[in-house]
Amino acid sequence: SSNEHKLNFKKSKEACLSYIQDALLQKQWKRAAEFLTCYVESLEKDYSREHIGPSEMIWRIGTEILWHHSQSSMKEFNCFIEQMKTLGVKRYLKVCLEHVFHLLLNGQIDEAYQNLSLAESWRFGEQTAIQDKEMKLIQAYRGLLDYYSWSKQKNILLEHGEDGFSDLAVEQEMHGYFRKAAVNLKEIIKIPGVWDVFVKCYVDLLEFYGDHNEAHQVLNEYAYNSKFPANPNAHVYLYQFLKRQGESKKSLISALKILHDVVPSHELMIDFNTMLQKSKKRKKRRLGLEVIFTALDYAGWKENAKAWSCLARQVKQIVISEKHLDWIKQEWSSRKDWWPAFHFSRYLAKRNWQENKSLSYEKALVAGLLLGKDCKYFKYVSHQGCKAQLKRFRMLKKFVNRHNLVYLRISG
């Protein structure tokens, strides 16, 4: 019966999809391709009986298989993607974008640009207005490729200088690419979203032509406009721009303060700590100590010699001056239960000594002052350093022994 046929078709379709999923998860691309062929053939036989729209599923699965299949070629991929473009008007621009990404990954930049230009000229009734954001994205990526061409021409000009008619032609071509890139890049970054690569390229164009005010305004908007999603990179780009422009330390610290609030483990926290330590204001030096302690709470910083050097230097200054020991005490109180195992075990002492003696020196100084002269990490490293007759380690041992009372005051 018709109902039985539909039920059997539904079961076989679901089973086939399950097999495809299993093959994809196990990276069995050939097996997945065979099942996808069966799936498509079964749909062709029964498509008139049951209205379904499987084109996006076939597109997603098919591109994944063709991208990884050992015997697939770019020609086959292009052929498949062109077929996918005709299957669904609603997904036309998305398929075009994916096609462009694959072309770029294969170094076919001219072909990618051509596809973007064709997609930009696409029109289909009301769908054109509905897919306005996708169209802006198409235009933005075309702007990105115009920026790439501009950058190439700029490098040619910088290498050969500005003499002769050939350089004049290159400069004119470069300005043409600049105008096209700037228009499209400017449009996409008006829309709330994460547009890192587009913002960086647009700012690079503006800076090259000396429009620093516009560049500053763009980066400020990207970092501080509440309509845009929270994005640490926006604050990084703003800080880097301010630094290039030689802005005041106050402006740089302000930019990094927000980055610290968003991502306290960011690599720029070294720069932030260094600036704060050099400040004459006690409040900023206090913040500097908090910044470096917080950064070292993260596993990615465990063996960062610069970070440990920053902490060792500030702790040492405080201990020598005997001022603001309460700063160290406040930071240490929330860490004394877990930092010893996290940073200062005997195992880590051995490994750090073998791999990086400068790191082990800085960590040993901090460990000795925070945990006292009987700390496992300090004892092992100072012993190895003295055994190797390294002067700085003998001085380290004397310094920690001399200030051992600090440990008692900090530990409460």
TrEMBL record:
A Pfam family annotated for this UniProt entry: TAF1_subA
InterPro entries: SL1/TIF-IB_Component, TAF1A
Lineage top rank: taxon: Eukaryota
One GO cellular component term: RNA polymerase I transcription regulator complex
Gene Ontology biological process: transcription by RNA polymerase I
Name this polypeptide is given: TAF1A polymerase
Species of the source: Tychaedon coryphoeus
